[in-house]
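Researcher: Here's my situation. A collaborator sent me these components and asked whether they could plausibly form a single complex. I don't have experimental data yet, so a predicted model of the whole assembly would be a useful starting point for our discussion.
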Amino acid sequence: MVKTIIDGISSWLIPFIIVVSLICGIIKRVPVYETFIDGAKDGLKVSVNILPYLIAIIIAVSMLRASGAIELTQQAFGGVLKMFNIPVDVLPVMVVRSLSGSAVLGMFSDIANQFGPDSFVTKLTAIMVGSSETTFYVLAVYFGSVGIKKFRHAILAGILADAAGIIAAVAVANWLFL
Amino acid sequence: MNYIWFFIILISFAAAAYTGRIDETVNAIWKGAQTSIEIALYLAGIMAFWLGIMKIAQKAGLVDFIAKLVTPFARLLFPDLKKDNPAIGDIAMNFSANAFGLSNAATPIGIKAMEELQKVNKDKNSASNDMCTLLAMNTAGFQLVPATVIAVLAACGAKNPTEIVLPTLIVTSFTFVFAIVVVKILEKFSKPQIPSDIKEENDG
């Protein structure tokens, strides 16, 4: 029952946003077609900018998997991870999530490609990546821009929130997708 | 990031030497290069579409509308700010632009809000409580639709790529609320700021 509702909202949120944007745009006399083209250009720029990062990370992680290093880690930490139902391949994602958005996207692409887009690992990683923000980058940019040197409790708050996000992602994925 | 990337590759070769899978590891380089271009191609199409729609949402005033809705909450979260401080409006806009995934628009507005907060900051070198709160709001990364993640899922041929939309929204909302609660709690335990003018007197 809850799952049906969640699936329904998931399916309808994007069409809803598209329709509302278009209708509001037409009412406000926004040239919707030209505006779309403008935004699409930005989107293409984002993709081109992100490409070198994707190449660097996807290659590195593919090598890590092919070399057997991930399986070796599984032998070492498998017990703990199994207790919480966290596949070992998600470990690098947890670490890099707070550091680099393009890198984590690369890792996610590698997982989706390797295990198939409908597997549990992929869905768990999707939630983890979709709800993340590059905490340390944000700290550096926002505080750096006004010359703040002492970050006080902002760092700890950021790290705790990241940890909470990871736990929540594992909990929600286990609840909905197992 | 430099060290992480370096170690991933180094560990790969070390593990390959241990497991004897050196050929597979080198082959993964060529395979990985191919995969990244394929994914980037799909990503480009979907990102272009989504940012196009988001640009319409922005021009149609939807981002401003959400910003207006959250302004009263922003006032609650930043009690140290005077009512007419422009930072409140900027903070609301920053949140709203982030929610729509418009990080190119959100970051300059957020930095503008930071500058306003810096003007009323007691010690220009250390972050005020309000600054930490604004930062917590941003590091929690609240977003309505994770467009890039959906793009990758679609690129890999997922049966239903939008399936993760609400689960992600649940997690991101929880993290957002958690971040604000934590930053407000930590603020009570954090060493209070020493106003710069007093500090200079002491130094002299």
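Model: Some features of this prediction you could bring to your collaborator: Chain A touches chain B through 107 residues (CB under 8 Å). The first helix of chain A runs from residue 2 to 27.
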